[in-house]
Structure formats: structure tokens, C-alpha cells
Design brief:
This protein is α+β, with helices and mostly antiparallel strands. It folds into two domains: 1-150, Hotdog Thioesterase (Thiol Ester Dehydrase, Chain A); 151-259, Thiol Ester Dehydrase, Chain A (Roll), CATH 3.10.129.10. Helices cover 19% and strands 36% of the residues. Strands 1, 2, 3, 4, 5, 6, 7, 8, 9, 10, 11 and 12 form a twelve-stranded antiparallel beta sheet that branches. α1 packs antiparallel against α4. It is globular and about 50 Å long.
Length: 264
């Protein structure tokens, strides 16, 4: 992931920079993969935190870290390989143990290509949820968040769902030694395409709702299931031995209300 020449802009509640869509970030259609947007969003979050004095070292010294627990992503237009994407993140609310960010991605001509709402939770070195330090609200200029962390309730997986087995590979791990949250989106789209939903993962607009229930570590054996559901597709990732959900998500292609959350 390469930052474009345009310099970053930052403020208490937002951070903005540009990314150039690299060759390896684009698919056969020469457009940025959907997971690339999630990678930009998480990178922006860390850039923003670091710019305000809360870098990786600050968190490590206190045994704290942020995890993505849920996201809602809407893709409105493809970002072609070799072009610049202007990306912006803003903290729009904090509440006890979670913070909500809104990200937007614009093409060079100003077209809104995508937006995302991401719910992050703060955990301690035991992996338990912990209260966000009071200084964060002041430094990030965030108001009190309404509602709660996003959820994606799914019915039981139907018998005719398309099922696949996968193993979490080393190159899919992040610095926390867990499968990176963007990788789940790659797994989801591959599964939907295998279930004859390839068109659904390419059409614009399209809306994803994602819930990260548990972390997956390197070498974990998982079962993936995708099935058609009204009005689009459902996806579940489970740990076969226990049956526990690792990840739940839905995809709604051609969503007519997809532009309603545009943040300007």
C-alpha cells in the first residue's frame, strides 16, 4: 500500500491522506479489491491515532489495543489500478469500550467511491474489553456514541449452502498474529463467487454488513458457508469442532439506499 504524494491532513476528529491503487491490490478487472478499502480504513485509523500521540508504543506500554468488531461498508464505484484514492477517517462517537469511525473514499475527480462505518473495541493484555481512557474523547473530539456495537444476526446455515474448508495462512496474519479483518472479506467474496454469486461481488452499489465474533489464528481450520438470501447473500465462518461463529456477514447488491450515508 503506497501513500500518494499529496500530504496528509489531520485534526482532532479526522485524518486524511491519499493511497495509490497498486498492481497487487487490484483484481482481474483492474479495480481495487473490496478488501483494499478495509485495509485503507484500518491504516488510516492508526495514522490518525499516531498523529495525535497514541502510536503503537503508547498502547503497548499500557497493554491496550484496538480490535475491529463490526463494519458496514458500501461500495459505490470501482477505484482503477494506478489511480489515487483520497481517504478520510473521522471518529464520530465513543461509548465506554467502543469507538465508531466513519471513513470515506473519493476518486481523483471527486466521485465518492465508498464509505464505511467501523466499530472498534478496546481490549487489555488479557483480551478483555476495557473502558476507553477519558483523554480520548478530548483528543479525538468525539461525542457520545448512540446505539451499540454492530451485529449481524443470521439464521441457521441452510443445508444447501455452499461450504468450503480453509486454513488461516501465515501471510494472512497481522501484527497481533490474527487473521487480518480485511482477509475475512476476501474469504467472503470467494465463497459467494463459488456459490454462483460472482456478479453480486462486482456490481455497484453494494452494501456489506460485517461482524467479527472471534479471532482466527494462524493454522486454524475453519468452515465457510455462503447462501443466497433476501435481498442478497449471507455468509458464516465457523470453527468446525466447536461450531462457534468466527464471522457473520451479509451482502446486498444494488442497494438503492447506499448513498444515504454520504458524509460530503
Amino acid at each position: 500500500m503506497t501513500t500518494a504524494p499529496a500530504g496528509p491532513r489531520t485534526g482532532p476528529s479526522f485524518h486524511e491522506t491519499a493511497y495509490r491503487v497498486r498492481f497487487d491490490e487490484a483484481g482481474p478487472d483492474e479495480v481495487l479489491r473490496t478488501s483494499g478499502l478495509m485495509r485503507y480504513a484500518q491504516d488510516l485509523a492508526w495514522l490518525h491515532s499516531t498523529a495525535l500521540g497514541f502510536g503503537r508504543e503508547w498502547y503497548a506500554a499500557r497493554g491496550l489495543t484496538w480490535l475491529v468488531r463490526a463494519a458496514e461498508l458500501v461500495v459505490l464505484a470501482g477505484a482503477p489500478m494506478g489511480t489515487d484514492v483520497r481517504a478520510r477517517t473521522q471518529v464520530v462517537g465513543m461509548r465506554r469500550v467502543f469507538a465508531r469511525r466513519r471513513g470515506s473514499f473519493h476518486l481523483a475527480d471527486g466521485t465518492l467511491a465508498a464509505w464505511v462505518h467501523t466499530d472498534w473495541v478496546l481490549i487489555d493484555d488479557r483480551g478483555a474489553l476495557t473502558r476507553i481512557p477519558a483523554i480520548f474523547s478530548e483528543m479525538f473530539g468525539a461525542s457520545e456514541a448512540t446505539g451499540s456495537v454492530g451485529r449481524v444476526p443470521l439464521p441457521p446455515t441452510p443445508e444447501d449452502a455452499t461450504r468450503q474448508r480453509l486454513t488461516v495462512r501465515r501471510h494472512e496474519l497481522d501484527p497481533m498474529a490474527h487473521a487480518n479483518n480485511a482477509v475475512y472479506l476476501d474469504w467472503m467474496e470467494e465463497a459467494i463467487a463459488a456459490a454462483r454469486g460472482a456478479e453480486a461481488v462486482a456490481v455497484t452499489p453494494r452494501r456489506y454488513r460485517l461482524e467479527y465474533a472471534l479471532a482466527a489464528a494462524g493454522g486454524d481450520e475453519l468452515e465457510s458457508a455462503a447462501w443466497a438470501s433476501d435481498p442478497g447473500w449471507s455468509y458464516r465462518l465457523t470453527e468446525p469442532a466447536s461450531g462457534s461463529d468466527i464471522f457473520r456477514a451479509t451482502l446486498q447488491p444494488g442497494d438503492p439506499g447506499a448513498t444515504l450515508e454520504e458524509d460530503g
